[in-house]
Amino acid sequence: MKGIYGACIANNITEIVGVMSGDCSNTEVLVEVLELEGIKVYPFLYPHSHKLEDVKIEINKFMELFNVNLVQVEKIRQKLNRVRKLSKKIDEMTYIDNKVSGFENHLYQIILSDLNGDIDKCEIELMEKINEIQKRKAKKEKLRLAYIGVPPMTDDIYDFVRKFDSHFVYNEVQREFAFPRGIEAKNIYEQYWNYTYPYNSKFRIQELKNQIEERKIDAVIHYTQAFCYRAVQDILIKKNLDIPVLNIEGDKINKLDARTKLRLEAFLDMLGDRKNS
Length: 277
Prior knowledge:
Layout: H1 2-10, E1 15-21, H2 27-36, E2 40-45, H3 52-65, H4 70-95, H5 102-110, H6 119-134, E3 143-149, H7 157-162, E4 166-171, H8 172-177, H9 188-193, H10 201-214, E5 219-225, H11 233-240, E6 245-250, H12 258-276
Parallel strand pairs: 1-2, 3-4, 3-5, 5-6
Helix pairs in contact: 4-5, 4-6
């Protein structure tokens, strides 16, 4: 929250979109503070229900704020889908071709959250990356891991697990931000309905199960932030997934601390021994 506030002030941001429901529970207060600073806020709410008709109502309200219609929105959505297909290709080259690192998988999906501020340049960057990846030799680690939860502030986790012959072949929320299923959606309403991040855990867990099976995942690392209510979902995840799950927590530092490294090492050693037996 402090980072978003500071970035808005430092960069003279005059207008923002505030996601008031379905994301961080602190957003509503942050929006009030930003409005005090004279920043114009466009509110958007994901509905509490996971019903297509309710998603449609909220998106229509949002379109009205910007005085645009569905035809205009769909034209831009189709342009964005070209870029999403490239990101999806990199994801497939991670878990099918074994040519992409866990960090690259993270990076080239989360990039779809803002397309680096330039759709055309982002498209070119992804195309060039795919061409470079295609020339690589496959590298297959023993353990195939899923990273679930919000994108990490401790990005060294990707290199750290490789020391133990392990590899992240799935980044859950980063993939959701890239909307891979949205490519096939009939319209913007269906795209934002078929999106696990803002809705209930049941919908999210079913998608996790689908990806665990498709990607042949051995274990899950569940990352949560110390101050985030989503940490409570770890209980539901462990009860509903039938593979090992390790919960690690981030707080203030942007690198893995010694305790977390020890826990990861012990977890991965245990998994390696089990796979060898």
